[in-house]
Amino acid sequence: MDLGCFTAHEQYPPGRLLEHVAAAEAAGFDAVWTSDHFHPWWHTGAECGAAWPWLGSALERTDDVRIGTGVTATVGRYHPGLVAQTFATLGAMYPGRVHCTLATGEALNEKPLGYDWPPYAERRRRLIDACEIVRSLWNGEVCDYEGHHWETDDAKLYTLPDEPVPLYVAGNGPETARVAGRYADGFLTLADVETYRTELVPALEEGAAEADRNPEEIDRIRQFSVSYAENYDDALDAVEFWTGSMAVDFDDDVYHPPRIEQLAETVPREKWTEWGLVTTEIEDVRAAIDRHREAGFDEIEFLSTSPDQERFIEAVGSLTAMTS
Prior knowledge:
Elements: E1 2-7, H1 14-27, E2 31-34, H2 51-61, E3 66-69, E4 72-73, H3 80-93, E5 98-103, H4 120-138, E6 143-146, E7 151-155, E8 167-170, H5 174-183, E9 186-189, H6 193-210, E10 219-228, H7 232-237, H8 244-247, H9 257-264, E11 277-279, H10 282-294, E12 299-304, H11 309-317
Parallel strand pairs: 1-2, 1-12, 2-3, 3-5, 4-5, 5-8, 8-9, 9-10, 10-11, 10-12
Antiparallel strand pairs: 6-7
Domain Luciferase-like: 5-275
GO molecular function, one term: oxidoreductase activity, acting on paired donors, with incorporation or reduction of molecular oxygen
Keywords: Oxidoreductase
């Protein structure tokens, strides 16, 4: 089972995140994932660097670890053709080390730039457009596409990687899981193990059947939230930064970080543990790895808000021999 490390542009400046990437590779992580946002989920002390230039720097800083987004949303601000070109170029420069993840997005990436924030059904249709355009361009085709929302006019990529870039789709419900089954090399989810087993796996398999694909060839990745520290209160305090993501649903038309932070004040401290695992014991992290392996996941990706990220990365690295 692979281990992934999430590098959050919302929480740390880009230079600090490069240190986290280097630490993750040294600790034996297999993959690094990064957020691709315009606005963060918090206001006070937040950051929000641009993911695409950072990816090139992170890949150059490291030697072997796979690095990509989780997620890049093609709702309005990104045309799928531009996404395809960017990740094809990264893949050509760093063979076998890049992945791209598409999804239905959040308002905080679209509304600040003047784009609309449509309902989920519309965003899902745009996601399908994006998957079809990216696949066509990565296959070296001349893409003359008129979709539900996105279009191309005899578009072609003239720089392609020797090794295909994995295309992942992220989602937490069966409709997006079905899209992943039709188009993706991997499926990323935040959903708990039970929801994954009972709702998402059947939908993923249905989507794969629709496209005459083998669902067993689709990687399954779980993003798992954790805060780890020697002192429990320190670990719990660190969760506050992410309580905005508890107060605002992905479908909500909320995009102004001060407003998100204000809404987060309605989440009482005793409920912060619902965000993820809050622990002082690294054995709890190992148990989470084991639980997700048994559920059929191929990778667990840790979104850590631990007060000492380097210590968390090193501690999880000590578990790598147990995950192979």
